[in-house]
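Example 9 (inverse folding). The structure is encoded as follows.
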């Protein structure tokens, strides 16, 4: 079964736009867990424009009452994020390259170019007992280097796939072939497969067939759909699609 980890960043974005504590990140995470998701993802950026370190700690404390729900902290390999992850000890830390001023993540790590910058952070996280995933693009080469420095999983940057699928399903299917090839190579190296970025109910009907896919991290699309359908029904729809059911009609709970 493919695990769904719900990214609750956008809840924090809305909260931060007005100050105070509503909507509650903990409420959103608890609702998703009660609906059946298998994980919660947070991305505490350096500018704290959505998830803050205090959110990271509060979600970690809440998850102690939910054994079996995985916690995924993602972000660039800066020292304060690594310190926070090692202190909180999530199940997984997903390292994501960041360009200053970017609106959202838009590229993955490459090898051998990024190997040395990742070696020490990966070692620190692994020594703390944290599974390490890294953000990559389909077609990335030299994954054996990532495996050699201790990376456990790769997370595909699925933005280009989603854009292609939105153009036409046929175009999406062609782009998907490069994801299949890269995933197959990663699995042969003993690496797990995650994916995330602009995945939604429609394109998941194809992407769920990716070889070795263990987990998808979805936030923006779920929160957009939740405005139409409600959060709990929206999470249930994603779980149903991942389990092999057809996508519901747009706006249908």
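The amino acid assigned to each position is listed next.
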């Amino acid at each position: 079964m493919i695990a769904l980890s719900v990214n609750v960043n956008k809840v924090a974005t809305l909260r931060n736009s007005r100050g105070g504590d509503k909507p509650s990140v903990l409420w959103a995470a608890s609702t998703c867990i009660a609906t059946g998701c298998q994980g919660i993802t947070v991305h505490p950026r350096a500018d704290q424009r959505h998830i803050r370190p205090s959110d990271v700690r509060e979600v970690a404390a809440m998850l102690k009452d939910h054994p079996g729900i995985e916690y995924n902290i993602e972000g660039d390999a800066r020292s304060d994020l690594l310190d926070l992850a090692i202190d909180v000890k999530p199940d997984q830390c997903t390292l994501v390259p960041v360009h200053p001023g970017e609106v959202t993540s838009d590229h993955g790590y490459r090898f051998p170019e990024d190997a040395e910058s990742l070696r020490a952070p990966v070692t620190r996280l692994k020594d703390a007992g944290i599974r390490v995933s890294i953000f990559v693009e389909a077609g990335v080469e030299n994954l054996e280097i990532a495996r050699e420095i201790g990376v456990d999983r790769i997370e595909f940057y699925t933005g280009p796939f989603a854009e292609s699928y939105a153009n036409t399903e046929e175009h999406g299917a062609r782009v998907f072939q490069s994801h299949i090839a890269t995933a197959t190579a990663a699995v042969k190296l003993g690496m797990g497969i995650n994916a995330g970025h602009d995945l939604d109910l429609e394109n998941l009907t194809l992407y769920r067939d990716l070889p070795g896919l263990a987990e998808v991290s979805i936030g923006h699309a779920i929160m957009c759909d939740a405005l139409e359908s409600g959060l709990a029904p929206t999470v249930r729809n994603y779980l149903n699609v991942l389990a092999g059911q057809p996508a519901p009609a747009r706006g249908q709970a």
